[in-house]
């Protein structure tokens, strides 16, 4: 087989066989196909799309390109959850201990943030001492003991995806639905869970800017999951405005603690109940979503979910005293309010732009090499649909510099106050197949 012939075949609208796709992934991972040919191939996929069979073959070849984690020594049905990314998306910090506290083992590998999207690993590292690197053995022991561990992706998990993602990033081929679906599902399949709950975000703060694309991506990933014999379902959630109130790493840890104590923002808690109920049903701990939800509600009101979080922090080397004194994470030198310039109702709170404002403060990375400042970020006091009086604070800005003129301007521009507003739904659709 020659790569140039396969590029040409795809360019002209042909359908690649499983063997051809396996050849491309194996040879590229082994550095026997150069980046320039792979770049051309990615662009043909971007324009010509792929059939379900091609995407499944691509996903499985990528999953097979490195280590596949064997979680069979963990008792019970292991359920993984993956979000396609967002702004202020604090769900994993709440959901992992919450679901574990009702008996579903959660062996979760998370990622870092890039650009305006946050990453669970960065948030966990805001907790002093918290270790996100565990050996496979220690990871499995943690989950057997405490039902939950959240760690970074092991180095050799889907190496084809790591190489491809870096190439896509610089060849304008990130936002291709077959490439996103195979990228996400290859990692989930290699990470070894029995069942997968996908949180597919849509809106300004997400990869999928519109509902039709989010729907197509969801269906595709659910189908790939089924073909790989993993029970998979997707929740299409709204990311037109940030989730919850906190954006920024330490601030989101505080928000997660408050939510696990039953005093967090309503939208974040509801999102955790929606995703968590699906996980509990897939994990075999409840027969219906209603039953699953009441288990989760009880876990929060009894303090069990919070206790599981505290235990997870301790087990992974973190300073568990932040659970009782979360205000210790508020280390920024300046707390500045942003007063509303007029009265009315918040009509839009544009997620990606608000995420960029947090990134400018140091809460996120512009490039992979940037360091994160865990103490900075934003706490929103108003969400879409809330009424506001002129002069009332819209946001508290946590900053380590006094020079935040540009951040303020960006926030003013993207928190739009009008006479009336239409509140977006939290969940657009639930897709099972
Ligand atoms: N997240 C991934 O892991 N891969 C993509 O391609 C997009 C989002
Ligand atoms: Ca949040």
Explain how this protein is built:
By secondary structure, this protein is α/β, with parallel strands linked by helices. Helix content is 45%, strand content 15%. The protein has helices at residues 3-11, 18-29, 35-48, 52-63, 91-100, 120-125, 136-146, 159-169, 177-190, 211-227, 249-260, 266-282, 289-301, 304-315, 321-324, 351-361, 405-414, and strands spanning 79-83, 106-110, 148-152, 195-202, 231-238, 246-247, 334-339, 344-349, 377-380, 387-388, 393-399, 415-418, 427-431. The strands form four sheets. A four-stranded mixed β-sheet has the order 1-4-5-13, with helices on both faces. The longest helix is centred in the middle third of the chain and has 17 residues, at 211-227. The chain is globular. The structure holds uracil (URA) and calcium ion. The site of calcium ion (CA) has 8 residues, from helix 11.
């Amino acid at each position: 087989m020659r790569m140039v012939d396969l590029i040409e075949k795809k360019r002209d609208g042909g359908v690649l066989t499983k063997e051809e796709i396996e050849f491309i992934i194996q040879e590229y991972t082994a550095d026997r196909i150069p980046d320039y040919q792979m770049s051309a191939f990615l662009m043909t996929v971007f324009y010509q799309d792929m059939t379900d069979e091609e995407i499944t073959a691509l996903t499985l070849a990528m999953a097979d390109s490195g280590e596949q984690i064997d979680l069979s020594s963990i008792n019970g049905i292991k359920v993984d959850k993956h979000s396609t990314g967002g702004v202020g998306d604090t769900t994993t910090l709440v959901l992992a201990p919450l679901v574990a506290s009702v008996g579903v083992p959660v062996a979760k590998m998370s990622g870092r943030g890039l650009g305006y999207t946050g990453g669970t690993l960065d948030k966990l590292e805001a907790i002093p001492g918290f270790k996100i690197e565990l050996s496979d053995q220690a990871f499995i022991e943690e989950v057997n003991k405490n039902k939950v561990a959240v760690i970074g992706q092991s180095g050799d998990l889907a190496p084809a995806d790591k190489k491809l993602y870096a190439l896509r990033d610089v060849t304008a081929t990130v936002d291709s639905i077959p490439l996103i679906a195979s990228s996400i599902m290859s990692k989930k399949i290699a990470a070894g869970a029995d069942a997968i709950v996908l949180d597919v975000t849509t809106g300004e703060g997400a990869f999928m800017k519109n509902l039709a694309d989010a729907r197509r991506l969801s269906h595709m990933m659910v189908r790939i999951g089924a073909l790989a014999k993993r029970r998979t379902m997707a929740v299409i959630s709204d990311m037109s405005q940030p989730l919850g109130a906190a954006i920024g790493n330490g601030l989101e840890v505080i928000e997660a603690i408050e939510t696990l104590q039953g005093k967090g923002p309503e939208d974040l808690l509801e999102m955790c109940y929606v995703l968590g109920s699906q996980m509990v049903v897939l994990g075999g701990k409840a027969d219906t979503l209603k039953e699953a939800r009441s288990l989760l509600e009880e876990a929060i009101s009894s303090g069990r979910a919070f206790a599981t979080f505290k235990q997870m922090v301790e087990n992974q080397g973190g300073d568990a005293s932040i659970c009782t004194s979360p205000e210790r994470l508020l280390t920024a030198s300046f707390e500045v309010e942003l007063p509303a310039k007029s009265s009315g109702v918040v009509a839009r709170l544009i997620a990606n732009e608000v995420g960029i404002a947090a990134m400018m403060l140091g809460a996120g990375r512009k490039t992979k090499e940037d360091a994160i400042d865990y103490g900075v970020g934003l706490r929103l006091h108003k969400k879409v649909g809330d009424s506001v009086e002129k002069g009332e604070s819209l946001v508290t800005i946590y900053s380590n510099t006094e020079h935040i003129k540009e951040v303020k301007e960006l926030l003013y521009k993207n928190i739009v106050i009008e006479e009336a507003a239409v509140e977006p739904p939290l969940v657009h659709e639930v897709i099972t197949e």
